[in-house]
Amino acid sequence: MPTWIVTGGAGFIGSNFVRTALERSDARVVVLDKLTYAGNPESLADVRDDPRFTFVKGDIADRDAVTAAYREHQPTAVLNFAAETHVDRSIDGPAEFVQTNVVGTFELLEAARHYTAELSREAREAFRFLHVSTDEVYGSLGSEGAFHETTAYEPNSPYSASKAGADHLVRAYHETYGLPALITNCSNNYGPYQFPEKLIPLMILNAIEAKPLPIYGDGGNVRDWLYVEDHCAGILLALTKGHPGRRYNIGGFGERTNLEILDALCAELERLQPAAQNPAMTREGIESYADLKQFVTDRPGHDRRYAIDSSRAQEELGWRPAHDLASGLAATVAWYLEHRDWCEAVQSGRYQRERLGLGS
Question: Checking DSSP bridges between strand 222-227 and strand 255-257, what pairing results, if any?
Protein backbone atom coordinates (compact mmCIF):
# COMPACT_ATOMS: atom_id res chain seq x y z
CA MET A 1 0.00 0.00 0.00
CA PRO A 2 1.46 3.43 -0.92
CA THR A 3 1.83 5.91 1.92
CA TRP A 4 1.51 9.64 1.30
CA ILE A 5 2.50 12.27 3.83
CA VAL A 6 0.28 15.31 3.28
CA THR A 7 1.65 18.38 5.05
CA GLY A 8 -0.89 21.07 5.89
CA GLY A 9 -3.62 18.48 5.51
CA ALA A 10 -5.89 20.21 8.05
CA GLY A 11 -5.96 23.39 5.97
CA PHE A 12 -8.22 24.37 3.10
CA ILE A 13 -6.67 22.75 0.03
CA GLY A 14 -4.91 20.05 2.05
CA SER A 15 -8.08 18.76 3.72
CA ASN A 16 -9.87 18.66 0.39
CA PHE A 17 -6.96 16.71 -1.08
CA VAL A 18 -7.08 14.22 1.79
CA ARG A 19 -10.69 13.44 0.88
CA THR A 20 -9.77 13.16 -2.81
CA ALA A 21 -6.88 10.82 -2.04
CA LEU A 22 -8.94 8.53 0.17
CA GLU A 23 -11.76 8.40 -2.38
CA ARG A 24 -9.70 7.97 -5.55
CA SER A 25 -6.64 5.98 -4.49
CA ASP A 26 -5.67 3.06 -2.26
CA ALA A 27 -3.01 5.12 -0.47
CA ARG A 28 -2.58 5.45 3.25
CA VAL A 29 -2.70 9.18 4.05
CA VAL A 30 -0.66 10.64 6.90
CA VAL A 31 -1.46 14.29 7.65
CA LEU A 32 1.35 16.36 9.19
CA ASP A 33 -0.02 19.70 10.40
CA LYS A 34 0.88 22.08 13.23
CA LEU A 35 -2.72 23.39 13.40
CA THR A 36 -2.28 27.12 12.98
CA TYR A 37 -5.32 29.41 12.94
CA ALA A 38 -6.13 28.21 9.40
CA GLY A 39 -5.67 24.51 10.09
CA ASN A 40 -8.38 22.82 12.10
CA PRO A 41 -9.20 19.19 12.96
CA GLU A 42 -12.84 19.99 12.20
CA SER A 43 -11.90 20.11 8.52
CA LEU A 44 -11.03 16.40 8.73
CA ALA A 45 -13.89 15.26 10.95
CA ASP A 46 -15.47 13.14 8.23
CA VAL A 47 -12.31 11.07 7.59
CA ARG A 48 -11.05 10.58 11.17
CA ASP A 49 -12.31 7.01 11.36
CA ASP A 50 -10.97 5.90 7.99
CA PRO A 51 -8.41 3.13 8.67
CA ARG A 52 -6.13 4.58 6.00
CA PHE A 53 -5.99 7.99 7.70
CA THR A 54 -3.45 9.08 10.32
CA PHE A 55 -2.96 12.51 11.88
CA VAL A 56 0.36 13.74 13.25
CA LYS A 57 0.66 17.16 14.87
CA GLY A 58 3.94 18.74 13.83
CA ASP A 59 5.63 21.75 12.26
CA ILE A 60 7.36 21.29 8.90
CA ALA A 61 10.04 23.73 10.07
CA ASP A 62 10.86 21.42 13.00
CA ARG A 63 13.64 19.15 11.78
CA ASP A 64 13.10 16.49 14.44
CA ALA A 65 9.35 16.31 13.78
CA VAL A 66 9.85 16.01 10.02
CA THR A 67 12.60 13.39 10.33
CA ALA A 68 10.44 11.37 12.73
CA ALA A 69 7.50 11.45 10.31
CA TYR A 70 9.62 10.08 7.46
CA ARG A 71 11.19 7.44 9.68
CA GLU A 72 7.94 6.23 11.25
CA HIS A 73 5.66 6.27 8.22
CA GLN A 74 8.10 5.40 5.38
CA PRO A 75 6.30 7.46 2.72
CA THR A 76 6.25 6.67 -0.96
CA ALA A 77 5.32 10.32 -1.59
CA VAL A 78 5.26 13.65 0.23
CA LEU A 79 2.82 16.36 -0.83
CA ASN A 80 3.58 19.78 0.62
CA PHE A 81 0.45 21.86 1.13
CA ALA A 82 1.69 23.42 4.39
CA ALA A 83 2.05 27.18 3.99
CA GLU A 84 1.14 30.57 5.31
CA THR A 85 -0.98 31.83 2.44
CA HIS A 86 -2.82 35.08 3.13
CA VAL A 87 -1.24 38.05 1.36
CA ASP A 88 -2.67 40.56 3.82
CA ARG A 89 -1.14 38.70 6.77
CA SER A 90 2.22 38.56 4.98
CA ILE A 91 2.20 42.35 4.73
CA ASP A 92 1.60 42.68 8.47
CA GLY A 93 4.03 39.93 9.52
CA PRO A 94 6.33 38.44 6.86
CA ALA A 95 8.58 36.50 9.26
CA GLU A 96 6.12 33.61 9.72
CA PHE A 97 5.84 33.28 5.95
CA VAL A 98 9.59 32.94 5.53
CA GLN A 99 9.77 30.45 8.41
CA THR A 100 7.00 28.15 7.20
CA ASN A 101 7.15 28.56 3.44
CA VAL A 102 10.93 28.70 2.95
CA VAL A 103 12.51 27.09 6.01
CA GLY A 104 9.72 24.51 6.29
CA THR A 105 10.09 23.47 2.65
CA PHE A 106 13.86 23.24 3.13
CA GLU A 107 13.44 20.90 6.10
CA LEU A 108 11.06 18.69 4.14
CA LEU A 109 13.50 18.54 1.24
CA GLU A 110 16.50 17.80 3.44
CA ALA A 111 14.61 15.00 5.17
CA ALA A 112 13.51 13.62 1.80
CA ARG A 113 17.08 13.73 0.49
CA HIS A 114 18.44 11.68 3.40
CA TYR A 115 15.43 9.37 3.49
CA THR A 116 15.55 8.47 -0.21
CA ALA A 117 19.33 7.91 -0.08
CA GLU A 118 18.65 4.86 2.09
CA LEU A 119 15.97 3.39 -0.20
CA SER A 120 16.54 0.76 -2.85
CA ARG A 121 17.07 2.12 -6.34
CA GLU A 122 13.57 1.06 -7.37
CA ALA A 123 11.92 2.65 -4.34
CA ARG A 124 13.99 5.82 -4.74
CA GLU A 125 12.94 6.22 -8.38
CA ALA A 126 9.27 5.62 -7.46
CA PHE A 127 9.31 8.21 -4.63
CA ARG A 128 7.70 11.60 -5.33
CA PHE A 129 7.97 14.98 -3.63
CA LEU A 130 5.15 17.21 -4.85
CA HIS A 131 5.25 20.87 -3.85
CA VAL A 132 2.00 22.83 -4.12
CA SER A 133 2.59 26.45 -5.09
CA THR A 134 0.72 29.44 -6.50
CA ASP A 135 0.41 31.58 -9.61
CA GLU A 136 1.31 34.61 -7.49
CA VAL A 137 5.01 33.78 -7.85
CA TYR A 138 4.79 35.02 -11.44
CA GLY A 139 3.77 38.55 -10.47
CA SER A 140 1.15 40.64 -12.25
CA LEU A 141 -0.12 40.44 -15.84
CA GLY A 142 -1.32 43.19 -18.11
CA SER A 143 -4.68 43.04 -19.82
CA GLU A 144 -3.64 40.14 -22.08
CA GLY A 145 -1.67 36.90 -21.90
CA ALA A 146 -1.38 34.15 -19.31
CA PHE A 147 1.22 32.56 -17.06
CA HIS A 148 3.08 29.60 -18.54
CA GLU A 149 5.43 27.20 -16.78
CA THR A 150 8.33 29.13 -18.32
CA THR A 151 7.13 32.57 -17.18
CA ALA A 152 9.81 34.38 -15.16
CA TYR A 153 9.17 34.82 -11.45
CA GLU A 154 8.37 38.36 -10.27
CA PRO A 155 6.73 38.04 -6.82
CA ASN A 156 5.33 41.28 -5.41
CA SER A 157 4.27 40.40 -1.86
CA PRO A 158 6.11 38.78 1.05
CA TYR A 159 3.77 35.80 0.62
CA SER A 160 4.52 35.25 -3.06
CA ALA A 161 8.23 35.87 -2.51
CA SER A 162 8.33 33.17 0.16
CA LYS A 163 6.54 30.73 -2.14
CA ALA A 164 8.91 31.61 -4.99
CA GLY A 165 11.87 30.86 -2.73
CA ALA A 166 10.37 27.49 -1.84
CA ASP A 167 9.77 26.68 -5.51
CA HIS A 168 13.39 27.41 -6.33
CA LEU A 169 14.57 25.13 -3.52
CA VAL A 170 12.40 22.27 -4.80
CA ARG A 171 13.79 22.69 -8.31
CA ALA A 172 17.35 22.86 -6.98
CA TYR A 173 16.95 19.63 -5.00
CA HIS A 174 15.80 17.88 -8.14
CA GLU A 175 18.65 19.25 -10.25
CA THR A 176 21.39 18.89 -7.63
CA TYR A 177 20.44 15.75 -5.73
CA GLY A 178 18.16 14.00 -8.19
CA LEU A 179 15.18 14.13 -5.82
CA PRO A 180 12.08 13.09 -7.82
CA ALA A 181 10.24 16.36 -7.26
CA LEU A 182 7.40 18.17 -9.02
CA ILE A 183 5.81 21.59 -8.59
CA THR A 184 2.22 22.63 -9.25
CA ASN A 185 1.25 26.31 -9.51
CA CYS A 186 -2.45 26.97 -9.11
CA SER A 187 -4.76 29.92 -9.54
CA ASN A 188 -7.08 31.23 -6.80
CA ASN A 189 -8.87 28.33 -5.11
CA TYR A 190 -12.35 28.52 -3.62
CA GLY A 191 -14.79 26.01 -2.18
CA PRO A 192 -15.59 24.17 1.09
CA TYR A 193 -13.41 24.48 4.20
CA GLN A 194 -11.68 27.73 3.19
CA PHE A 195 -10.82 29.89 6.20
CA PRO A 196 -13.03 33.02 6.21
CA GLU A 197 -10.17 35.50 5.71
CA LYS A 198 -10.21 34.84 1.96
CA LEU A 199 -12.43 36.79 -0.44
CA ILE A 200 -15.25 34.37 -1.20
CA PRO A 201 -16.03 32.95 2.28
CA LEU A 202 -15.48 36.39 3.83
CA MET A 203 -18.07 37.94 1.53
CA ILE A 204 -20.58 35.13 2.04
CA LEU A 205 -20.40 35.30 5.83
CA ASN A 206 -20.39 39.09 5.99
CA ALA A 207 -23.39 39.27 3.67
CA ILE A 208 -25.60 36.90 5.63
CA GLU A 209 -24.76 38.88 8.78
CA ALA A 210 -25.54 42.19 7.02
CA LYS A 211 -21.96 43.39 7.43
CA PRO A 212 -20.09 45.53 4.86
CA LEU A 213 -18.60 43.80 1.82
CA PRO A 214 -15.19 45.50 1.43
CA ILE A 215 -13.88 45.87 -2.13
CA TYR A 216 -10.19 46.72 -2.45
CA GLY A 217 -9.42 49.68 -4.71
CA ASP A 218 -11.74 49.84 -7.72
CA GLY A 219 -12.62 46.14 -7.62
CA GLY A 220 -11.03 45.62 -11.03
CA ASN A 221 -8.30 43.19 -9.97
CA VAL A 222 -8.67 39.99 -12.00
CA ARG A 223 -8.14 36.44 -10.72
CA ASP A 224 -8.53 33.06 -12.36
CA TRP A 225 -10.84 31.11 -10.02
CA LEU A 226 -10.38 27.36 -9.53
CA TYR A 227 -12.79 25.13 -7.60
CA VAL A 228 -10.75 23.32 -4.96
CA GLU A 229 -11.94 19.82 -5.88
CA ASP A 230 -10.75 20.38 -9.45
CA HIS A 231 -7.38 21.53 -8.14
CA CYS A 232 -7.09 18.42 -5.98
CA ALA A 233 -7.89 16.21 -8.97
CA GLY A 234 -5.08 17.93 -10.88
CA ILE A 235 -2.62 17.39 -8.04
CA LEU A 236 -3.51 13.70 -7.88
CA LEU A 237 -2.85 13.41 -11.62
CA ALA A 238 0.45 15.27 -11.30
CA LEU A 239 1.49 12.89 -8.53
CA THR A 240 0.62 9.73 -10.44
CA LYS A 241 1.32 10.79 -14.04
CA GLY A 242 3.63 13.79 -13.84
CA HIS A 243 7.32 13.75 -14.73
CA PRO A 244 9.85 14.56 -11.98
CA GLY A 245 11.49 17.90 -12.59
CA ARG A 246 8.38 19.27 -14.29
CA ARG A 247 6.13 22.11 -13.27
CA TYR A 248 2.39 22.03 -13.95
CA ASN A 249 0.15 25.11 -13.97
CA ILE A 250 -3.42 24.38 -12.87
CA GLY A 251 -6.02 27.09 -13.56
CA GLY A 252 -9.77 27.24 -13.49
CA PHE A 253 -10.68 28.98 -16.77
CA GLY A 254 -12.60 31.44 -14.58
CA GLU A 255 -11.14 34.92 -14.98
CA ARG A 256 -13.26 37.52 -13.21
CA THR A 257 -12.73 40.85 -11.51
CA ASN A 258 -13.24 40.92 -7.76
CA LEU A 259 -16.31 43.07 -8.32
CA GLU A 260 -17.78 40.49 -10.72
CA ILE A 261 -17.18 37.75 -8.15
CA LEU A 262 -18.92 39.77 -5.48
CA ASP A 263 -21.91 40.47 -7.73
CA ALA A 264 -22.20 36.75 -8.52
CA LEU A 265 -22.09 35.87 -4.81
CA CYS A 266 -24.78 38.43 -3.98
CA ALA A 267 -27.00 37.03 -6.73
CA GLU A 268 -26.54 33.45 -5.49
CA LEU A 269 -27.28 34.50 -1.92
CA GLU A 270 -30.46 36.23 -3.08
CA ARG A 271 -31.48 32.94 -4.69
CA LEU A 272 -30.70 30.72 -1.70
CA GLN A 273 -31.42 33.05 1.22
CA PRO A 274 -33.19 36.20 -0.03
CA ALA A 275 -32.25 39.39 1.78
CA ALA A 276 -35.93 40.11 2.39
CA GLN A 277 -36.13 36.91 4.46
CA ASN A 278 -32.86 37.44 6.33
CA PRO A 279 -33.50 38.86 9.84
CA ALA A 280 -30.04 40.47 9.97
CA MET A 281 -30.76 42.42 6.80
CA THR A 282 -34.21 43.41 8.07
CA ARG A 283 -32.77 44.72 11.33
CA GLU A 284 -30.32 46.90 9.41
CA GLY A 285 -32.98 48.10 6.99
CA ILE A 286 -31.01 46.91 3.94
CA GLU A 287 -32.99 45.56 1.02
CA SER A 288 -30.37 43.63 -0.97
CA TYR A 289 -26.96 42.06 -0.42
CA ALA A 290 -25.54 44.22 -3.20
CA ASP A 291 -26.27 47.28 -1.05
CA LEU A 292 -23.61 46.07 1.41
CA LYS A 293 -20.77 46.67 -1.07
CA GLN A 294 -18.20 49.15 0.17
CA PHE A 295 -15.03 50.33 -1.61
CA VAL A 296 -11.99 50.55 0.69
CA THR A 297 -8.32 51.49 0.44
CA ASP A 298 -6.43 49.08 -1.78
CA ARG A 299 -3.88 46.54 -0.53
CA PRO A 300 -0.24 47.67 -0.87
CA GLY A 301 1.39 46.10 -3.95
CA HIS A 302 -1.90 44.58 -5.11
CA ASP A 303 -1.29 42.58 -8.32
CA ARG A 304 -3.71 43.62 -11.03
CA ARG A 305 -4.31 40.42 -12.95
CA TYR A 306 -3.52 36.71 -12.86
CA ALA A 307 -4.35 34.15 -15.55
CA ILE A 308 -3.02 30.63 -16.02
CA ASP A 309 -2.39 28.60 -19.15
CA SER A 310 -3.08 24.98 -18.14
CA SER A 311 -2.16 23.44 -21.51
CA ARG A 312 0.63 21.27 -20.11
CA ALA A 313 -1.63 19.79 -17.42
CA GLN A 314 -4.28 19.07 -20.02
CA GLU A 315 -1.90 17.51 -22.53
CA GLU A 316 0.42 15.55 -20.23
CA LEU A 317 -1.92 14.68 -17.37
CA GLY A 318 -5.32 14.62 -19.07
CA TRP A 319 -6.67 17.16 -16.57
CA ARG A 320 -9.72 19.35 -17.07
CA PRO A 321 -11.83 21.10 -14.42
CA ALA A 322 -15.20 19.48 -13.76
CA HIS A 323 -16.80 22.72 -12.53
CA ASP A 324 -17.38 26.00 -14.30
CA LEU A 325 -17.42 29.15 -12.18
CA ALA A 326 -21.21 29.32 -11.91
CA SER A 327 -21.63 25.77 -10.61
CA GLY A 328 -18.61 26.08 -8.34
CA LEU A 329 -19.84 29.31 -6.76
CA ALA A 330 -23.33 27.88 -6.29
CA ALA A 331 -21.91 24.82 -4.50
CA THR A 332 -19.65 27.02 -2.37
CA VAL A 333 -22.38 29.41 -1.24
CA ALA A 334 -24.64 26.48 -0.38
CA TRP A 335 -21.85 24.81 1.62
CA TYR A 336 -21.16 27.89 3.76
CA LEU A 337 -24.86 28.43 4.43
CA GLU A 338 -25.16 24.80 5.54
CA HIS A 339 -21.98 24.77 7.65
CA ARG A 340 -22.23 27.81 9.88
CA ASP A 341 -21.14 25.62 12.80
CA TRP A 342 -17.80 24.92 11.08
CA CYS A 343 -17.33 28.62 10.38
CA GLU A 344 -17.91 29.48 14.03
CA ALA A 345 -15.62 26.70 15.24
CA VAL A 346 -12.62 27.64 13.10
CA GLN A 347 -12.85 31.34 13.92
CA SER A 348 -13.52 30.85 17.67
CA GLY A 349 -12.20 34.18 18.88
CA ARG A 350 -8.97 34.05 16.86
CA TYR A 351 -10.27 36.01 13.89
CA GLN A 352 -13.36 38.18 13.56
CA ARG A 353 -13.04 39.02 9.85
CA GLU A 354 -11.26 42.31 10.58
CA ARG A 355 -9.27 44.15 7.89
CA LEU A 356 -5.63 43.04 7.62
CA GLY A 357 -2.67 44.00 5.44
CA LEU A 358 -2.68 47.79 5.53
CA GLY A 359 1.08 47.76 6.02
CA SER A 360 1.02 50.18 8.96
Answer: antiparallel
Q: What is the CATH number of domain 3-189+227-252+302-322?
A: 3.40.50.720
Answer yes or no: 336 catalytic.
no
Under DSSP, the state recorded for 157 is: S
Residue 37 is among the residues annotated as catalytic for this protein: no
> Which of the residues 135, 197, 230, 255 is marked catalytic?
135
The domain locations on the chain are 3-189+227-252+302-322
- Rounded CA-CA distance 139/162 in Å is 13
Instruction: Report the predicted TM-score, pTM, of the whole model to 2 decimal places.
Output: 0.94
92 is catalytic: no
Give per-residue pLDDT as tens, 103-120. 999 999 999 999 999 999
Contact criterion met (CB below 8 Å) for 261 and 343? no
Amino acid in the structure at residue 213 = L
Question: Which residue among 59, 88, 107, 136 is the active-site one?
Answer: 136
Catalytic-labelled residue, pool 70, 115, 138, 159: 159
Query: Helices 158-177 and 105-117 sit at what angle, rounded to 10 degrees?
Result: 10
Q: Per-residue DSSP letters for 126-151? A: H-EEEEEEEGGGG----SS--B-TTP
With H, G, I as helix, E, B as strand and everything else as coil, classify residue 180. Answer: coil
> If you average pLDDT over residues 151-160, what whole number do you get?
96
* Strand ranges inside 142-298, DSSP E: 181-186, 188-190, 213-216, 222-227, 247-250, 255-257, 293-296
Residue 159 CA to residue 81 CA, distance in Å, equals: 14
- Packing angle between helix 199-208 and helix 325-338, nearest 10 degrees? 50
3-state class (DSSP) for residue 218: coil
Q: Is 188 helix (H, G, I), strand (E, B) or coil?
A: strand
HSE toward the beta carbon, residue 345, CA cutoff 13 A = 13
- Least Cα distance to 164 among 178, 181, 185 occurs for 185
